[in-house]
């Protein structure tokens, strides 16, 4: 319903409202306190008005807005000036036609847009919701516009929230409500919201009359992720309010039957409306160049007018006793001054009034073609490209640096859990490959684990063997049996492991841990590790039968993970210790694994979670079944905010540590052999980019201790994982675990896996109470809440016990290497900015061909600023030596986050830029979101280059907004990057065609169209200027005023529009095959200052030819002024139209229609005008002039000779003397398919030889002959013969 274009940083909560208050006070609208009632009335109502105009204000307000444009003011001034008798050039009425036409077209467009907003506002304000009525003592239906702050609103499932509400009641017994924020930020995964903590129980449903609490919160702002305040109960007790207590306007209630909330922000004060900023506006590089050239046009206009004014004054001064002049007392100087303004009016068309309107039309059409390109359509996501910035399409053709995120941008961001290390022991899961699915079972095997002090006995119903069936591979291999140690009971969690010979063997997770003294410690690490995977997250658990009406589940692809994981299982026991037992871990372990009877362990062939509802095929030896799990695991749907969380929860579920439900205060977790356990949730410390970790504080269901589970980046967790105070044994064990875990992390990174560390901390009751008091103060603070909460989290997350780490694979997207190689061939430098480890970043850089095997790798890892400076100088010297040597292919620089901090400082950024500028590619690892934006800004500002940033997550928003062009990828990490971007695509491979094809086309079309506008205006204005030398600089013109005004406004306006919309200098196939053609846009070859002045000189030459050939042809004849001007106008029209034919690379029936139509329109208009108009253009009389001229052969001979001589230099230079690279490529397009294949093969061979020599060749090296125009209808068929130009 709302399209929020770009969330911007929220204002400080200390900002004052309309009454000067720093906070907002909200109470029930049922209050009888008059003072509080007046406060509620001072707040904005819920009526939304997004229109700019009313019926009475439209004309004055729209005119006022249009007068903010300098061009409109300029032409209104000239129209008004023409009404002054002493300076008017022609009929005043005619002079106002162009500006009236432009103003009218713009006004109609604005009116239509505003009318659409009015209809949308009327619909939204008329929506109905249930509001509690004091008079009727019940909830009644009212329109959204009648909702006010303090009202109680009741909503049902699938209803849209009308205003920002504080959640006071939910039909969920745990006080939880689920919302979908797709209307707000585009994300379709569910978000969980909670009823205000410690709210007194109100029975079955909240009774508004009994609500007497007071709410203090921050003033309205646009920060969607923050809400600060507190609720004060009548008892004066306070409870903090957070973002998870707030229901935002335009979100949708899901999976919850009924919710009740009190409105805190309404209408334009809601966060949704605060973020509704409209389309993004950026000023393109081409537009900045255009403004400079418009100023040069103004300078030319002033020079020409001054020349005419001075010439007129001198001419009058030298005239004496002339009988043809009316006696006048005006001095020559004053007459020259008057003539200056007259010439401003006559030559006004030198400033292209229609150019700005034409540019807007062309850009809209370009966006239409980009959005409807079928190659950008993603069938899986049912999405296409989004163009969110409407005025920088041409910048896509001038990009010089691309800054890319890694995860989700270069990779799929579809995580698969591959490896883990627990307590220093690694457990690889190589079977989770992309194309392998292994299903294993233990056939007819029964075993029992001996009791403490007893004997072990093994019973087999048919045979005592463990077998595995491998399906989907080349064959089956018999793995080793799961061996049990006889010295102590163990928890058998069987995982598949691939040996060096690619055979499968069954490896028990309980392999000996030599430094662990007893089995209970091993069990503690394993259970805690998988418990942390299951509960340390914000995953929403739902089931298909819940009333959520949406079209698709964002994590649908992650559901396939359950097919890739094998799981462990243990028989359930009929008697378990209480969830809050206080017995020792060893005694609990003894009870868990010791029993009188053996249990059968019979996994099914299809024993994969979620296949058939079976929970592992477990049954007791006596034939009885264990207690069923509630709900069944195959009915669970996990919806996570990030794929990492989803992968870890699915991995835990695959091994029977299943997260079954989540409420405000409890989590329901199923553990193997223990059934479902209720875990009391005390606190969630969410992930943030500064801490790089998240934690949950729970009451352990087995030991009743307060336990903090933390997961996060290994660089952070390893520093926080210090040995607990006390025992030397613990210190040695933790040291060994840290050492082994670090080795495994390094191996994971070298394999390109994403790594996370898992840790925990056990707190005593006293420590927890002390921390809780400080944390409660931070939660109830309004000012500086974020800083206080950060300090509180950091106090808790210290002295952690390292449990282990995970390795998650994230595959590259398709065609990423080809795309990066094409961009590099196009002259674009690609930088990867990622938060991953250095080894992971290097591995991905190699996989995507950013780092080639022939490149020299430069790494910068420094611990101090001085070391960083010395290293940068050393690396720079090494690069200079390499550049001087022959055969060096290039350098790739890898910088870690700490070194990047030093390099971005003022005194080192110059050295860093000089080094990175000389490198072919740069990889910044361990970089924060702030560092990413600083890097982009540094390169953009210091090197003065066009930058593009592309990413998919919230951590990429800052660099996307800083870059000249920001591109968001609509992937698995939400829509924050998309909402902040200028363009949104679904795959990284789309960047190749977006830049190399559409970017090239958009830039060349607009650049050529702008130059063409300047050319035709200057060319025609010069004709009027040359005539002044033969009329005493009197301001007279050799044509009637109607033709003068309509020449640029109507007769020659349509062809350049078509030129800017449809022209293709090179085909899409050739642009993809020859990325080097993109360099013409990078270097602004189509629109350089020199190009502008050459165009002006060409216009000057053509105007001289167009004026003086008719002048000499009609010299000595009795032709009058209008008869002399008729062939000049006709020749000028033909020259201008045919000039565009020469410049255009595309010639279709539509082009022919427009060009011929423009010429016919001119000749038809002038003929009709000369026949019927007697007094249309006083004081001149055009009656019969053009009719007579067009009946004489001399007229056509002069027009033909003038046109040929004027265009001959342009055609010769462009086609034969100095053809451009793009022209030569366009000529290749005109070859027949066989010749085209040969030329492309020659190009590929030349390119390969060039790379071997370390040189760069130009298209000019190709021997291309100009053939007859043949459309390449079979070009695609020759790709197999030519081979991929990108390989």
From TrEMBL:
EC nos: 7.6.2.1
Keyword check for Transmembrane: yes
Main enzyme class: translocase
Matching Gene3D superfamilies: Calcium-transporting ATPase, cytoplasmic domain N, Calcium-transporting ATPase, cytoplasmic transduction domain A, Calcium-transporting ATPase, transmembrane domain, HAD superfamily/HAD-like
Pfam families named in the record: Cation_ATPase (PF13246), PhoLip_ATPase_C (PF16212), PhoLip_ATPase_N (PF16209)
GO CC annotations on file: endoplasmic reticulum membrane; plasma membrane
Chain ranges passing through the membrane: 290-316, 336-359, 1027-1051, 1092-1115, 1150-1174, 1194-1211
Binding site for ATP: 405-407, 645, 687, 711, 754, 834-836, 926, 932, 955-956
Cross-referenced CDD domains: P-type_ATPase_APLT_Dnf-like
PANTHER family noted in UniProt: PHOSPHOLIPID-TRANSPORTING ATPASE VD (PTHR24092:SF84), PROBABLE PHOSPHOLIPID-TRANSPORTING ATPASE (PTHR24092)
Organism (species): Oncorhynchus mykiss
Domain P-type ATPase N-terminal: 40-96
Cofactor(s) demanded: Mg(2+)
Subcellular location: Endomembrane system; Endoplasmic reticulum membrane; Membrane
A GO molecular-function descriptor: ATPase-coupled intramembrane lipid transporter activity
Gene Ontology BP, a term: phospholipid translocation
Entry similarity comment: Belongs to the cation transport ATPase (P-type) (TC 3.A.3) family. Type IV subfamily.
Region annotation Disordered: where it falls in the sequence: 601-632
InterPro entries recorded: ATPase_P-typ_cyto_dom_N (IPR023299), ATPase_P-typ_P_site (IPR018303), ATPase_P-typ_TM_dom_sf (IPR023298), ATPase_P-typ_transduc_dom_A_sf (IPR008250), HAD-like_sf (IPR036412), HAD_sf (IPR023214), P-type_ATPase_IV (IPR006539), P-type_ATPase_N (IPR032631)
Keywords, in A-Z order: ATP-binding, Endoplasmic reticulum, Magnesium, Membrane, Metal-binding, Nucleotide-binding, Translocase, Transmembrane, Transmembrane helix
P-type ATPase C-terminal domain residues: 978-1214
Topology class, membrane: Multi-pass membrane protein
Taxonomic superkingdom: Eukaryota
Protein name: Phospholipid-transporting ATPase
Positions bound to Mg(2+): 405, 407, 952, 956
Positions of the catalytic residues: 405
UniProt catalytic activity: a beta-D-glucosyl-(1<->1')-N-acylsphing-4-enine(out) + ATP + H2O = a beta-D-glucosyl-(1<->1')-N-acylsphing-4-enine(in) + ADP + phosphate + H(+); ATP + H2O + phospholipidSide 1 = ADP + phosphate + phospholipidSide 2
């Amino acid at each position: 319903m709302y399209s929020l274009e770009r969330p911007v940083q929220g204002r400080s909560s200390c900002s004052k409202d309309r009454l000067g208050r720093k906070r907002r006070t909200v109470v029930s609208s049922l209050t009888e306190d008059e003072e509080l009632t007046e406060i509620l009335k001072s707040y904005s109502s819920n009526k939304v008005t997004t229109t700019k105009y009313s019926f009475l204000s439209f004309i004055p307000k729209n005119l006022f807005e249009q007068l903010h444009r300098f061009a409109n003011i300029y032409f209104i001034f000239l129209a008004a000036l023409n009404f002054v008798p002493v300076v008017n050039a022609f009929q005043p009425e005619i002079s106002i036609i162009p500006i009236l036409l432009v103003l009218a077209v713009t006004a109609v467009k604005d009116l239509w847009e505003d009318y659409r907003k009015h209809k949308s506002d009327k619909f939204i304000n008329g929506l109905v919701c249930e509001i509690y009525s004091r008079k009727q003592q019940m909830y009644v239906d009212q329109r959204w516009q009648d909702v006010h702050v303090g009202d109680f609103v009741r909503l049902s499932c699938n209803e849209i929230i009308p205003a920002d509400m504080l959640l006071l009641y939910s039909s969920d017994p745990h006080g939880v409500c689920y919302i979908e924020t797709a209307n707000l930020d585009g994300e379709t995964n569910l978000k969980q919201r909670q009823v205000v903590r410690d709210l007194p129980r109100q029975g079955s449903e909240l009774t508004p009359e009994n609500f007497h609490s007071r709410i203090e919160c921050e003033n309205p702002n646009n920060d969607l992720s923050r809400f600060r305040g507190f609720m004060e109960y009548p008892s004066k007790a306070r409870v903090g309010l957070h973002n998870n207590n707030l229901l935002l306007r335009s979100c949708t209630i899901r999976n919850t039957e009924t919710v009740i909330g009190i409105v805190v922000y309404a209408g334009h004060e809601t966060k949704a409306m605060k973020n509704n900023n409209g389309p993004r506006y950026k000023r393109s590089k081409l537009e900045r160049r255009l403004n400079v050239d418009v100023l040069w046009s103004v300078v030319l206009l002033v020079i020409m007018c001054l020349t005419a004014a001075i010439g007129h004054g001198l001419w009058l001064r030298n005239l004496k006793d002339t009988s043809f002049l009316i006696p006048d007392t005006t001095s020559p100087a004053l007459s020259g001054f008057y003539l200056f303004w007259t010439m401003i009016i006559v030559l006004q068309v030198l400033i292209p009034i229609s150019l700005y309107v034409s540019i807007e039309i062309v850009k809209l059409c370009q966006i239409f073609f980009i959005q409807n390109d079928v190659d950008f359509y993603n069938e899986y996501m049912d999405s296409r490209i989004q163009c969110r910035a409407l005025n920088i399409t041409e910048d896509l053709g001038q990009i010089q640096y691309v800054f890319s995120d890694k995860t989700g941008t270069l990779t799929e961001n579809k995580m698969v859990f591959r490896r883990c290390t627990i307590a220093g022991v690694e457990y690889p899961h190589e079977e989770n490959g992309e194309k392998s699915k292994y299903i294993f079972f233990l056939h007819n095997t029964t075993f029992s684990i001996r009791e403490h002090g007893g004997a072990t006995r093994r019973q087999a119903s048919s045979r005592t063997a463990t077998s595995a069936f491998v399906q989907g591979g080349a064959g089956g291999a018999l793995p080793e049996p799961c061996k049990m140690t006889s010295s102590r009971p163990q928890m058998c969690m069987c995982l598949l492991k691939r040996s060096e010979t690619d055979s499968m063997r069954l490896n028990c997770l309980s392999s000996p841990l030599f430094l662990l003294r007893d089995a209970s410690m091993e069990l503690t690490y394993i259970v805690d590790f998988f418990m942390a995977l299951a509960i340390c997250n914000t995953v929403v658990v739902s089931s298909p039968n819940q009333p959520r009406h949406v079209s698709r589940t964002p994590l649908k692809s992650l559901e396939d993970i359950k097919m890739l994981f094998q799981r462990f299982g243990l028989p359930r026991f009929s008697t378990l210790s209480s969830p809050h037992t206080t017995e020792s871990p060893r005694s609990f372990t003894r009870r868990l694994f010791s029993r009188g009877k053996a249990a059968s362990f019979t996994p099914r062939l299809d024993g994969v979670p979620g296949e058939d509802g079976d929970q592992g095929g477990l049954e007791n030896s006596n034939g009885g079944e264990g207690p069923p799990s509630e709900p069944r695991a195959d009915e669970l749907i996990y919806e996570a905010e990030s794929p990492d969380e989803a992968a870890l929860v699915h991995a835990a579920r695959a091994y029977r540590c299943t997260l079954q439900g989540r409420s405000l205060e409890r989590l329901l977790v199923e553990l193997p052999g223990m059934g479902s356990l209720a875990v009391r949730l005390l606190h969630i410390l969410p992930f943030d980019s500064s801490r790089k970790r998240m934690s949950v504080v729970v009451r352990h269901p087995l030991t009743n201790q307060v336990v903090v589970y933390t997961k996060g980046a290994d660089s952070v967790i390893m520093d926080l994982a210090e040995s607990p105070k006390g025992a030397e044994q613990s210190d040695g064990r933790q040291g060994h675990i840290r050492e082994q875990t670090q080795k495994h992390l390094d191996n994971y990174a070298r394999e390109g896996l994403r790594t996370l560390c898992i840790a925990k901390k056990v707190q005593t009751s006293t420590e927890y109470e002390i921390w809780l008091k400080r944390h409660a103060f931070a939660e109830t603070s309004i000012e500086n809440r974020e800083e206080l909460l950060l300090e509180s989290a950091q106090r808790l997350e210290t002295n952690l016990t390292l449990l282990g780490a995970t390795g998650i694979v994230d595959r590259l997207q398709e065609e990423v290497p080809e795309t990066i190689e094409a961009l590099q061939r196009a002259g674009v430098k690609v930088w990867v900015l990622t938060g991953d480890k250095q080894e992971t970043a290097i591995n991905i850089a190699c996989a995507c061909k950013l780092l080639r095997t022939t490149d020299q790798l430069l790494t910068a890892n420094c611990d101090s600023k001085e070391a960083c400076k010395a290293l940068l100088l050393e690396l720079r010297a090494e690069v200079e030596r390499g550049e001087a040597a022959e055969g060096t292919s290039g350098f790739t620089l890898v910088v870690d986050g700490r070194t990047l901090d030093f390099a971005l400082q003022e005194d080192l950024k110059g050295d860093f830029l000089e080094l990175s500028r000389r490198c072919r590619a740069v990889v910044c690892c361990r970089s924060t979101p702030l560092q990413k934006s600083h890097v982009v800004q540094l390169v953009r500002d210091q090197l003065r280059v066009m930058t593009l940033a592309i990413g998919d997550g919230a951590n990429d928003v800052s660099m996307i907004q800083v870059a000249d062009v920001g591109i968001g990828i609509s992937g698995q990490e939400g829509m924050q990057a998309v909402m902040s971007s200028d363009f949104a695509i679904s795959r990284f491979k789309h960047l190749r065609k977006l830049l190399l094809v559409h970017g090239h086309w958009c830039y060349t079309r607009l650049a050529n169209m702008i130059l063409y506008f300047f050319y035709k205006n200057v060319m025609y204005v010069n004709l009027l200027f040359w005539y002044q030398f033969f009329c005493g600089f009197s301001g007279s013109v050799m044509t009637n005023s109607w033709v003068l005004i309509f020449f640029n406004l109507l007769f020659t306006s349509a062809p350049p529009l078509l030129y800017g919309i449809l022209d293709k200098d090179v085909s899409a196939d050739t642009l993809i095959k020859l990325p080097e053609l993109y360099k013409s846009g990078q270097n602004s070859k189509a629109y350089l200052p020199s190009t502008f002045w050459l165009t002006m000189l060409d216009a000057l030459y053509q105007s001289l030819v167009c004026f003086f050939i008719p002048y000499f042809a009609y010299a000595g004849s009795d032709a009058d002024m209008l008869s002399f001007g008729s062939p000049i106008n006709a020749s000028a029209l033909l020259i201008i139209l045919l000039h565009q034919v020469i410049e255009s690379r595309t010639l279709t029936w539509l082009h022919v229609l427009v060009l011929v139509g423009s010429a016919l329109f001119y000749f038809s208009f002038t003929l009709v005008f000369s026949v019927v108009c007697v007094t249309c253009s006083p004081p001149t009389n055009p009656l019969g002039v053009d009719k007579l001229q067009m009946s004489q052969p001399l007229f056509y001979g002069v027009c033909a000779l003038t046109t040929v001589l004027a265009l001959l230099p342009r055609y010769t230079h462009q086609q034969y003397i100095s053809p451009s690279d793009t022209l030569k490529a366009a000529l290749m397009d005109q070859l027949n398919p066989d010749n085209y294949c040969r030329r492309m093969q020659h190009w590929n061979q030349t390119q390969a030889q060039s790379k071997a020599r370390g040189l760069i060749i130009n298209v000019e090296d190709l021997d291309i002959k100009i053939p007859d125009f043949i459309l390449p209808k079979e070009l695609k068929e020759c790709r197999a013969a030519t081979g991929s130009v990108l390989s």
